[in-house]
Amino acid sequence: MAIFSVYVVNKAGGLIYQLDHYAPRADTEKTFSFPLDLVLRPHDERVVVAFGQRDGIRVGHAVLAINGAEVNGRFTADGKDVLEFLGNPANYPVSIRFGRHRLSSNEKLMLASMFHSLFAIGSQLSPEVGSSGIEMLETDTFKLHCFQTLTGIKFMVLADPRQTGIDALLRKIYEIYSDFALKNPFYSLEMPIR
């Protein structure tokens, strides 16, 4: 059981604080011979596995490194296109590391503002007057818990589905935010928390 991430979203939907508190599952590195028995496709400026799961490599995993050199999106460390490099038989055998891609700061901002919009839609669609919006989203691999203050600040925690005591954790995070951010004379409301 674990807490994966903590997000604080201001009342306008902007991300003002984010903390990742988990080690992603281990990446999988494997040496391949030509032809590659996985189907790779470009997706969101990354090269991901589109077909062919095996040995811990799953559909959706991104190419993270080739021959020990980190991959930057769709390009190798020396600027070559990953798909062109892997399509050339002269480059084999090749060692490729696969894993879940890491979210960039912009992607985290976008996801926080998207949740803010879903929260507003959820509270407006509720058949009950004065609905508090989305308090929890549950999937098979995580739960997203949300606590909105009276001022509109949202505190979100992504946790293991079996984790208990998240409501108390959210209230404690709000208490810490009140004590250390709001009482700080140099902190401006709605601004990122450093």
From TrEMBL:
Gene3D superfamilies: 2.30.42.40, 3.30.450.70. The keyword Oxidoreductase does not apply. Keywords: Endoplasmic reticulum, ER-Golgi transport, Golgi apparatus, Transport. GO terms for cellular component: endoplasmic reticulum; Golgi apparatus; TRAPP complex. Signal peptide: none annotated. Pfam families: Sybindin (PF04099). The keyword Isomerase does not apply. It is found in: Endoplasmic reticulum; Golgi apparatus, cis-Golgi network; Golgi apparatus. GO terms for biological process: endoplasmic reticulum to Golgi vesicle-mediated transport. Component of the multisubunit TRAPP (transport protein particle) complex, which includes at least TRAPPC2, TRAPPC2L, TRAPPC3, TRAPPC3L, TRAPPC4, TRAPPC5, TRAPPC8, TRAPPC9, TRAPPC10, TRAPPC11 and TRAPPC12. Interacts with SDC2. Belongs to the TRAPP small subunits family. TRAPPC4 subfamily. Core component of the TRAPP complexes which has a function of guanine nucleotide exchange factor activity for Rab1 GTPase. Plays a role in vesicular transport from endoplasmic reticulum to Golgi and autophagy. May play a role in dendrite postsynaptic membrane trafficking. This is Trafficking protein particle complex subunit. It comes from Sterrhoptilus dennistouni.
